[in-house]
Structures are given as C-alpha cells and as structure tokens.
C-alpha cells in the first residue's frame, strides 16, 4: 500500500466513532459470554442469537405507520403501537384459521377488511336430482 498517500490511507480506515463502538460491542459480548457460561447448565453460547433485528423491525413498522411524520407525538406513537398490535393479532388469527390449507389459497392480511361488517355471500347449494 505504499502507492497510497497518507490521506488516502486515512480514508480507508474506520472512523474513530465506529472503532469505539466496535470495541464496546466486543468487550460487552465477551463479558456477557463469560457471565452466561458461569450459569449452571450453560455449556455454549450461540452468538447468532444476539440480534437487534426484532427491535429494528418494530421501529421500522412504527416509522411506516407514521407516514411522512418523522417526529410522532407520544399519543401518535401509542396509537401506532395499538394499531400494530391489533393487526398482528388479526394476522395470527387469520393464519391459525388457514392451517392445513393450500399455501396458494392463503390470503394476505392486507386483503382482509377487518372493519367491514357486511354479510358474506352465501354458498350456493346444489340439490341432487333423484330419478
């Protein structure tokens, strides 16, 4: 890397903030792993189970439900939380009712109008003709 200038080499490195965050993460993980391995019955630690994905997904859904509002009030955030919980519960109910059905026939939660109380069309009955 002798062909790079000092400034170019500096740009190839991680920022001091990123390095500090990485150090904190590694030291914290090592300390937590040592503590967990001291618990009775704990023989191994699966590092892949340490993830923030569910938290990031939750806040992603919060941002999406807020529309263009980047700074929701406490009331808006609470309302969004309630809406997300209701839609999650409704999704679970729909998926439970569809167990054992063909996967092609499963409907998406967005296809279901939960507020529509109109009567569903009745299934047509066929009469058997006896001779």
Which terms summarize this structure?
single chain; 131 residues; mainly alpha; 4 helices; 51% helix
Give an overview of the whole structure.
The chain is 51% helix and 0% strand. The protein has 131 residues and is mostly helical. It is elongated and about 95 Å long.
Characterize the overall form.
elongated
* Percent helix: 40-55%
SS strand fraction: under 5%
By DSSP (H or I, 4+ residues per run), the number of helices equals 4
Gyration radius, rounded:
27 Å
> Biggest sheet, in brief?
none
- Low confidence ranges: none
- Structural category is mainly alpha
Distance between the termini: 94 Å
Total number of strands: 0
Mean pLDDT across the residues is 76
- Element pattern in H and E: HHHH
Describe what is shown at a glance.
The protein has helices at 6-12, 16-38, 53-65, 74-97. The chain contains four helices and no strands.
What is the topology?
Layout: H1 6-12, H2 16-38, H3 53-65, H4 74-97
């Amino acid at each position: 890397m002798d062909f790079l200038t000092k400034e170019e080499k500096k740009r190839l490195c991680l920022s001091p903030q990123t390095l500090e965050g990485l150090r904190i993460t590694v030291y914290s993980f090592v300390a937590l792993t040592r503590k967990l391995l001291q618990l009775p019955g704990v023989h191994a630690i699966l590092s892949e189970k340490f993830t923030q994905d569910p938290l990031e997904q939750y806040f992603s859904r919060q941002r999406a439900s807020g529309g263009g509002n980047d700074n929701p009030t406490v009331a808006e955030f609470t309302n969004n939380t309630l809406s997300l919980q209701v839609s999650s519960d409704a999704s679970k109910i729909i998926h439970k009712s569809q167990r054992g059905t063909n996967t092609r026939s499963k409907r998406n939660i967005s296809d279901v109008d939960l507020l529509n109380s109109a009567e569903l069309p009745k299934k047509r009955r066929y009469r058997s003709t006896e001779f």
